[in-house]
Amino acid sequence: MQTRPNVLTIAGFDPSSGAGLTADIKTFEALKCYGFAVCTANTIQSDTSFEECYWIDIGIIKNQIKILFKNFEIDYVKIGIIQNWKVLHDIIDFLLEKNSNVKIVLDPVLKSSSDFDFHKLSLGENEFEEVLNKIYLLTPNYNEIKAFYPDKTIEETIKHISSKTNVFLKGGHREGMLGKDELFTKEGTSFRLNPKNKNITEKHGSGCVLSSSITAYLSQGFPLLKSCYRGKRYIEKVLSSNTSLLGYHKF
């Protein structure tokens, strides 16, 4: 029997399971990984609306991480919504303390698909630079990457961030280039990943699923570009699985 890689998601709980940690777990399972989950927030939301967010205490988050790393080998972690950038920084440092080689995929969720603001960018530029230096991959959408450095152009922001970490720019919110994703590596190369499946409909939590699928493929030993390519193909299958806002993970 083949052993599956362990993958951890640190994210919020969505009762509709379209987004957040339960969507991540479904993705990990479908892609033949064993998924662990640490909850950062309990939310009141559905596929169409977001009403409230109750943040989990950082001490509880750390204790859950601690017991998992004590008992299991975890080399890949996907991070979703976090209360604020200080908590994010603490979590990343704690993960690296438990496993200095852990690869972190950060999905910087600033707003829900129903336009709920999770938090404002209250992080100082130097602190944000430290976060970028400690993660393996950042997966913002077009709206999110514009918010990081308001005084820079998109091109300048991408060049700056990709000098510190790999960037997978999701194209779901990109006017005129909808569905066209781009990968910018720390080594200075870039790749465009064009959509293949045109029979798709919008899904709640699609960004979460895309980031977690890339993490899953990385955990299986695929190189970064191949992981991003396979992750994109996976999310397209979810997007075309039905016509509702909640996608299926078994095709």
List its salient traits.
251 residues; alpha/beta; UDP-N-acetylmuramoyl-L-alanine:D-glutamate ligase; nine-stranded mixed sheet; 8 helices; 9 strands
Offer a concise description of the structure.
This protein is α/β, with parallel strands linked by helices.
Describe the protein in words.
- Strand 2 (34-45) and strand 3 (50-55) form a beta hairpin.
- The protein has a nine-stranded mixed β-sheet with strand order 3-2-1-4-5-6-7-8-9, sandwiched between helices.
- It has a single domain, classed as Ribokinase (UDP-N-acetylmuramoyl-L-alanine:D-glutamate ligase), CATH 3.40.1190.20.
- It is built from eight helices and nine strands.
- By secondary structure, it is α/β, with parallel strands linked by helices.
- Helix 1 (20-30) packs across helix 7.
In terms of per-residue confidence, which ranges show pLDDT below 50 for 5 or more consecutive residues?
none
- Could you give a short account of the major beta sheet? 9 strands, mixed
The CATH C-level class name: Alpha Beta
The helical percent reads 25-40%
| Class by alpha and beta content | alpha/beta
Shape: globular
Tally of distinct domains: 1
Number of strands: 9
Order of helices and strands: EHEEHEHEHEHHEEEHH
Strand residue content: 15-25%
Task: Report the CATH topology name.
Answer: UDP-N-acetylmuramoyl-L-alanine:D-glutamate ligase
Gross CATH architecture: 3-Layer(aba) Sandwich
Give the spatial strand order of the biggest sheet.
Answer: 3-2-1-4-5-6-7-8-9
User: Which radius of gyration do the C-alpha atoms yield?
Assistant: 17 Å
Domain Pyridoxamine kinase/Phosphomethylpyrimidine kinase: 14-245
InterPro entries: HMP/HMP-P_kinase_dom, PM/HMP-P_kinase-1, Ribokinase-like
GO molecular function: hydroxymethylpyrimidine kinase activity; phosphomethylpyrimidine kinase activity
EC number: 2.7.1.49
